[in-house]
Write a structure and sequence with these properties.
disordered N terminus; six-stranded antiparallel sheet; eight-stranded antiparallel sheet; single chain; about 550 residues; mainly beta; 2 domains
Length: about 550
């Protein structure tokens, strides 16, 4: 059973503080120094006057905003009833897990903070699985100096019609800058951006959209205000039409926001995939994309997986793409050096890979953002009046590549909420610190995967020895003995063996389309990183005049 548990009873007096709380504490000293200092003892006042004093601070709530469920854009369901765009309803579910947080107040709510639904609290954590019809917000409080592990995932399943597919995205913390990579706005494609403001203050939002020819001029639709506890939806096919490759930067001032991008495509009358894109890694020189799926497609197959990369700065760059699979590194011809023009969204084909699940690492000489796409074919219902093969798509967001500790020391490697109604597996990989084309990966690292149910109980665990430069896939159903439906999963890494390695992983969600073909609806979801907040903050007196 896990040592990290939901905390009962009185919270520790010396509590965790987020970066925002630290700033607030320092600002309070600057603006209200006299009033605050007068409430301290004489010894405390002398300590602050003499320099810096460590002060315990009540922990701030953590808010993770989940993407809205998949929905057909307004005005899209028109035409002959024989070709109904929505012949079946969409089913949307949320899976959430909180490990290492305070017990009281763990809940999901609407954007307005109302319609609260408490998470079930068990001996290992707090969890929830629920049907959803709109945006949900996961709210919890950290415990000082302990790993805080909260995550949620929204998944929508539609078995027929224009929305046929499985769209899934993780719940994200609000920020002032968010990057979403994927989708397009050519004829037959829609890209619906939703920006959410869970705070008490209005947010002024500016959009930067990039396409295959560089930055896209948005005009008046590029800036707008999001009211407190509200969300604003923008149809990018109207604001930035005829872009077959997209990357979007959402910038906010006045309040932190979250964002999600629903992508949908139709090939003539055939569904061509749906997904929910949530923010990936911010611009950096290295990122990893997990759970990239190959069916053994040929190099020139338009449905082969592909990598998408953008240099958001002003200087051109080059990148090296390294592909790790079940049998180790795979040589990708032409990826030893990829030219990346500044501001241009570039796709790198990943065709020619043997069937399997892969992790792709990008190392560039300039900061970059990126994601990868995998396609999954399906089948038409027996009574369909349309011939051809429908497809679903899975976009995998880029994640930071980080080695824990100087020698790849043990620690939490992230967690993920698991919605009901889907089959979930994880793709794990050990990424060597040295990834040169002439460097053979050595060593490895053990990881422990734990699974939780909707009551907050741990229902299974397994240890996997990862080999540096290779991937390993684990179905959650194989970890659970009694068939209980998983609601969350966490991964912890042990000490690296034989060299520095980073652990990267992502989940693959699958659902059936009702035609007898198993698992033809697919999505990939990146985990949420664990955080540990300090139990105190250093403050000092300043002259506010």
């Amino acid at each position: 059973m896990r040592d990290t548990r939901v905390r009962r009873g009185v919270r520790a007096t010396t509590a965790a503080v987020t970066g925002l709380a630290a700033v607030a504490a320092l600002a309070a000293v600057a603006v209200l120094g006299d009033q605050w200092a007068q409430s301290w003892t004489g010894a405390e006042q002398r300590a602050v006057a003499a320099g810096t004093r460590t002060v315990g601070v009540q922990p701030a709530d953590v808010t993770l905003v989940c993407p809205p469920p998949v929905a057909l854009p307004k005005g899209a369901d028109v035409g002959d009833s024989q070709f109904d765009a929505t012949p079946v309803p969409t089913t949307s579910r949320l899976g959430a897990v909180v490990l290492g947080g305070a017990e009281e107040g763990v809940r999901t709510t609407g954007l307005d903070g109302r319609s609260a639904d408490p998470l079930a609290v068990g001996d290992a954590g707090a969890a929830q699985q629920a049907d959803v019809t709109g945006t949900r917000v996961l709210r919890a409080t950290p415990v000082a100096d302990e790993p805080f592990r909260a995550a949620g995932t929204t998944a929508s399943v539609t078995t027929q019609g224009d929305l046929r597919g499985l769209g899934a995205g993780s719940c994200a913390a609000p920020s002032t800058s968010l990057w979403l990579v994927g989708g397009g706005t050519e004829v037959g494609q829609t890209a619906t951006l939703t920006v959410q403001n869970p705070s008490e203050r209005p947010a002024t939002v500016a959009l930067d959209v990039y396409g295959p020819n560089g930055p896209v001029a948005l005009g008046g639709s590029g800036t707008f205000t999001v009211a407190p506890h509200d969300q604003v939806t923008t149809r990018l096919e109207s604001a930035a039409p005829e872009q077959d490759r997209l990357a979007v930067n959402v910038r906010a001032s006045g309040a932190r926001v979250t964002a999600a991008l629903q992508t949908q495509a139709i090939d003539g009358l055939l569904p061509a995939g749906v997904d929910l894109l949530t923010p990936g890694a911010t611009p950096r020189e290295s990122f990893a994309v997990g759970a990239v799926l190959s069916r053994g497609e040929a190099v020139d197959d338009p449905h082969a997986p592909r990598l998408r990369v953008l240099v958001p700065g002003e200087a051109d760059g080059t990148a090296r793409v390294t592909v790790y699979g079940p049998s180790g590194p795979v040589v990708l011809r032409g990826a030893d050096e990829v030219d990346l023009p500044a501001g241009v969204v570039t796709d790198v084909p990943l065709g020619g890979l043997p069937e399997g699940a892969y992790t792709v690492v990008v190392d560039a000489d300039v900061p970059v953002v990126g994601a990868a796409r995998s396609d999954q074919p399906g089948a038409q219902p027996d009574d369909s009046v349309v011939d051809g093969t429908p497809y679903d798509v899975a976009w995998s967001a880029g994640q930071p590549v980080a080695v824990t500790g100087a020698a790849g020391a043990a620690g939490a490697a992230g967690q993920l909420g698991v919605p009901g109604g889907v089959r979930t597996g994880v793709v794990l990989s050990a990424l060597p610190a040295e990834r040169g084309p002439d460097t053979d990966p050595t060593g490895g690292v053990p990881v422990t995967l734990r699974v939780y149910d909707a009551s907050g109980a741990e229902i299974g665990s397994t240890e996997v020895d990862l080999t540096a430069g290779a991937t390993a896939s684990v179905a959650l159903a194989s970890v659970v003995d009694d068939g209980t439906v998983p609601a969350g999963v966490s991964v912890d890494r042990g000490d690296a063996k034989g060299g520095d390695v980073a652990v990267a992983w992502a989940a693959v969600l699958r659902a059936d389309d009702g035609t007898g073909s198993a698992g033809t609806l697919v999505a990939s979801v990146a985990p949420t990183a664990a955080v540990t907040t300090p139990g105190a903050v250093d403050v000092r007196a300043v002259d506010a005049g």
